[in-house]
């Protein structure tokens, strides 16, 4: 069958550091891929890791026009890759969670009459009232406190699935409402990064989906409606209108905007499906069974578990699930993921993963007792400021250790934290347990091996055609101790 007679589907991932696009066939085969790396491809926005550190302590923002410009750029790359857009039946995607986009009063009119002859970013240059606070922002501690005081911490967790967290959109909205009232008043609509991206494709402000909407401290995850008291605690009576009505994640929002029909040759009836949060879409793609844990290794590391119903966690988050098979999901987000690994790779091994992995191979499981905690950025789980701690086998604080011990201390420390907090969330390991890894760092076999050793569970990696075992669990191996304790890969 030629591509022309096939139905194809286009997906986007508006992640922290890059925008990725992928075209798949009806059999889920990947036909084309393209990406735009914000720091490298759009240097005029002066981002580092896709974000800009703001002037307030802990403030982390991104200019929405960066994402707008990246969209045309990635589309042009798909054109160069030979994509025939007329075969695309439907478009959808994911975005980094919690970040908010503040649309001006004339933005929706602009979205509705975009000319195919000009770039999106020139036409939407005045569509945003301010830069977007993103998930790495930790400047809203006072707002979290105020929200928990207004609702009650446990009650807030019961209603919204989370206690108040700095990066959650409700506290971020509260900060702008109180500190920048003119910005709040000038805003017609507030989108999440996901629904903002969907809006560009749909040519109108797209609804927030229920799964990503659960990362705001505003949604009642049982009734699936905005909670009046939470809205009141974060803004004024206009907030419900600014947010619009949330919809299930698989909702068709409308046909694709005429901009994409005219500029790239989409058929006018191509459907735009609501976008959701990156972790929500990862959970949907992983098809987790009970006892399995999803591990998304990206800028942040996130642990994902499917849940049958809502509950009120003391730490971590419960979200409405993205698919009927996963009605609810648990999420634990560790802010120090790939960026932290990369910083220490650079420090310990130059800029090469190969050299870093050599260091790991020079050490053994358990790292001769060396253990480390490396927070280059404020950590979310557990809540903690940036810092670095290391101990030797006797439990003494160690100011420094040889690079190979540091390399393993960093990764084993990360894996241990992921396991301990998953267990606190109610996750129990048994014979059927497995870890399904996804995200950029899931290509690193040494890292996967460490997760396998620490979770004592096989680790699989998600591919478009299914899960593939990457590393055997420690319990499948016989050798522990002084002999060859290094990896015995059972890759298939
Ligand atoms: C989840 O709660 C997070 O904050 C992060 O994983 C972001 O979604 C990263 F994009």
Description:
By secondary structure, the chain is an alpha+beta fold. The chain has two domains: 3-279, 2-Layer Sandwich (Nucleotidyltransferase, domain 5); 287-492, Nucleotidyltransferase, domain 5. It contains 18 helices and 23 strands. The strands form six sheets. Strands 1, 2, 3, 6, 12, 13 and 14 form a seven-stranded mixed beta sheet that branches. Strands 17-18-16-15-21-22-23 form a seven-stranded mixed beta sheet. A three-stranded antiparallel beta sheet has the order 4-5-8, with no helix packed on it. A hairpin with a 2-residue loop joins strand 17 (317-323) and strand 18 (326-334). Helix 5 packs across helix 6 (153-160), helix 7 crosses helix 11 and helix 16 (353-361) packs across helix 17. It is globular. Residues 15-16, 96-98, 135, 167, 215, 277-279, 299-300, 302, 331, 333 line the site of 5-deoxy-5-fluoro-D-xylulose.
Distance between the termini: 30 Å
Q: Pairing-aware structural class of the strands and helices?
A: alpha+beta
Average of pLDDT: 92
Our Rg estimate from Cα atoms comes to 23 Å
CATH homology superfamily name of the largest domain: ATPase, nucleotide binding domain
List of distinct ligands in this structure: 5-deoxy-5-fluoro-D-xylulose
Percent range for β-strand residues: 15-25%
Low-confidence spans: pLDDT under 50, at least 5 residues?
475-492
């Amino acid at each position: 069958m030629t591509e022309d007679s096939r139905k194809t589907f286009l997906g986007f991932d508006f992640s922290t550091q890059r925008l990725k696009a992928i075209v798949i066939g009806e059999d889920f085969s990947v036909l084309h891929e393209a990406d735009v790396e914000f720091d490298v491809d759009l240097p005029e926005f002066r981002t580092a890791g896709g974000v800009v550190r703001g002037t307030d302590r802990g403030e982390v923002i991104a200019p929405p026009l960066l994402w707008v410009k990246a969209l045309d750029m990635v589309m042009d790359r798909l054109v160069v890759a030979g994509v025939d857009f007329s075969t695309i039946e439907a478009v959808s995607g994911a975005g980094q969670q919690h970040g908010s986009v503040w649309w001006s009063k004339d933005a929706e009119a602009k979205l509705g009459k975009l000319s195919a002859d000009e770039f999106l970013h020139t036409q939407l240059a005045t569509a945003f009232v301010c830069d977007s606070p993103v998930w790495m922002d930790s400047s809203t501690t006072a707002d979290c406190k105020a929200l928990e005081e207004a609702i009650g911490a446990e009650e807030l967790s019961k209603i919204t699935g989370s206690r108040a967290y700095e990066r959650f959109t409700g506290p971020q909205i509260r900060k702008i409402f109180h500190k920048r009232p003119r910005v709040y008043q000038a805003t017609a609509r507030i989108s999440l990064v996901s629904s903002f991206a969907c809006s560009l494709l749909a040519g109108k402000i797209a609804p927030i989906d229920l799964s990503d909407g659960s990362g705001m401290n505003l949604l009642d995850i049982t009734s699936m409606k905005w909670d009046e008291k939470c809205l009141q605690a974060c803004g004024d009576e206009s907030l419900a209108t600014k947010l619009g009505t949330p919809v299930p994640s698989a909702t068709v929002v409308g046909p694709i905007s005429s901009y994409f029909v005219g500029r790239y040759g989409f058929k006018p009836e191509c459907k735009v499906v609501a976008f959701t949060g990156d972790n929500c879409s990862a959970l949907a793609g992983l098809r987790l069974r009970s006892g399995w844990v999803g591990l998304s290794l990206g800028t942040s590391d996130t642990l994902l578990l499917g849940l049958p119903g809502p509950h009120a966690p003391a730490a971590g988050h419960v979200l409405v699930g993205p698919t009927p098979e996963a009605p609810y999901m648990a999420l634990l987000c560790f802010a120090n993921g790939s960026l932290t690994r990369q910083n220490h790779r650079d420090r310990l091994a130059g800029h090469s993963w190969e050299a870093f992995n050599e260091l790991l191979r020079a050490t053994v499981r358990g790292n001769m007792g060396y253990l480390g905690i490396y927070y280059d950025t404020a950590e979310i789980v557990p809540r903690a400021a940036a810092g670095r701690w290391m101990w030797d086998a006797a439990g003494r604080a160690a100011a420094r250790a040889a690079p190979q011990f540091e390399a393993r201390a960093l990764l084993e420390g990360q894996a241990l934290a992921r396991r301990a907090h998953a267990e606190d969330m109610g996750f129990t390991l048994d014979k059927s347990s497995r870890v399904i890894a996804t995200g950029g760092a899931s290509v690193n076999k040494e890292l996967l091996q460490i997760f396998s050793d620490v979770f004592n569970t096989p680790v699989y990696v998600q591919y478009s055609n299914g899960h593939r075992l990457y590393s055997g669990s420690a319990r499948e191996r016989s050798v522990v101790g002084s002999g060859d304790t290094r990896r015995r890969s059972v890759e298939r």
